[in-house]
Amino acid sequence: MPLVPMRQILDEAAKGGYGVGAFNVNNMEQIQAIMQAAHDTKSPVIIQASRGALKYSKMIYLRNLIQAAVEEFPEVPVSMHLDHGNSVETCIEAIKLDFTSVMIDGSLAEDGKTPNTYEANVAITRKVVELAHPLGVTVEGELGCLGGIEDGHGAGLSVDEVNEHLTDPAQAEDFVKATGVDALAVAIGTSHGAYKSGRKDPVSGKMLPPVLAMERIHQIHDRMPNCHMVMHGSSSVPQELVDVINQYGGKMPNTFGIAIEQIQDGIKHGVRKINVDTDSRLAMTGAVRKLFAEKPEKFDPRDWLGPAREAAYQVYLARMTAFGQAGHVGDYMGMTLADMIKVYAAAK
Q1: Which 3 state secondary structure label does DSSP give 117?
Q2: Which contacts of 239-242 are long-range, i.e. CB under 8 A and separated by 24 or more positions?
Q3: Which burial class, exposed, middle or buried, applies to 148 when counting CB atoms under 10 A from its CB (0-12, 13-18, 19+)?
Q4: What is the pLDDT of residues 289-332, one digit of tens each?
Q5: Cα–Cα distances in Å, from 142 out to 201, 256, 284?
Q6: Is residue 83 annotated as a catalytic residue, yes or no?
Q7: b/e string for 247-286 if b means 16 or more Cβ within 10 A?
Q8: Taking the model in full, what pTM does it have?
Q9: What are 217-227's pLDDT values in tens digits?
């Protein structure tokens, strides 16, 4: 089937009570690993590219690689999503290249770092919706700010500052009505990257997991049971993946991620899209370090990209199963953007 609007994937996930992994990509091997995992688990999937990825790989290359993946596995519903678009122009560029979904991150100014005013966020988000919906393209917005900086986006807030920028449930309801977004990224204390917590046990000095305001998700779901929420910064940063990196010469102390059980709780309360990036990076880096440490004579990129791809595949396989999307490929026929145009027109 052709690329489908993300809105359909999220609507179907809501019907089935499951979440869908949105996996960030930078290269061919990640795309191949995602699609193989989606095929093997019979999972619909969202493949997304951030501005950092688009700068590295160039948007047209990633677009064509994803299109090739769809041709190889035509039975898998796939949405191609722009992650953290920083301007109307960036979203337009993605739409012109056949992305079926875009995120406009109006929670931050165009520099991708400075927190925006609520009014400015509403204005730019609404503008993207008005441009995208007549073309059948899904729009994700964000309210509140995440911690961490990665791929050119993120406010880089401290733990206390993150708590000051959590999503307000009442404001979230107003935001969705004012903008018409299809999906809402919520700030509940997650952060981008492998260092999601600045908390330490005062006695042992060990890192503690980040405190997530899961009640905010529950409250938003109570107010808007049909709102598709998105959890950003949701890599679990498994210690075993970090251990492999450190075992073979890496230096990654004090990493921490988001517990799968917390993500699953979010899914029970309206989270339909779960962003995962760091976990596959860790898996791939560990596999490459291990290969070079054990076989230093290797020089063919295929020798190390192959194990990296397999390691990423295992991560995607596990996440698709944990999020509940596995087994849902045959539930529905994929819509086209033309089909979605009619849906949006009928909803006016």
Answers
A1: coil
A2: 241/279, 241/282, 241/283, 241/286, 241/315, 242/194, 242/282
A3: buried
A4: 999 999 999 999 999 999 999 999 999 999 999 999 999 999 99
A5: 32, 23, 29
A6: yes
A7: ebeeebeebbbbebebbbebbebbbbbbbbbbbbbbbbbb
A8: 0.93
A9: 999 999 999 99
| Residue at token pair 């993605």 | 94
Which residue carries 């490929």 as its tokens? 329
Neighbours of 71 (CB within 10 A): 9
Contacts of 301 (CB under 8 A, 6+ apart): none
- What the chain holds in terms of domains, given with CATH numbers, is 6-236+253-277+308-347 (3.20.20.70)
Q: Which of 331, 317, 277, 276 is nearest to 13 (CA)?
A: 331
* Rounded-to-integer distance, Cα 218 and Cα 265, Å: 9
185, 48, 192, 43: CA torsion to nearest 10: 80
The CA–CA distances, whole Å, from 214 to 140, 176, 261 equal 20, 19, 11
Please compute Rg for the chain using Cα positions: 19
Single-letter amino acid, residue 103: M
Structure tokens at 69: 């993946």
Task: Give the residue from 181, 184, 193, 284 showing the smallest Cα distance to 234.
Answer: 193
Distance CA 60, CA 156 (A): 29
Q: Which of 83, 105, 168, 279 is catalytic?
A: 83
Please give the single-letter amino acid code of residue 156: G
Tokens representing 328?
Answer: 């849902």
The per-residue pLDDT for 190 is: 79
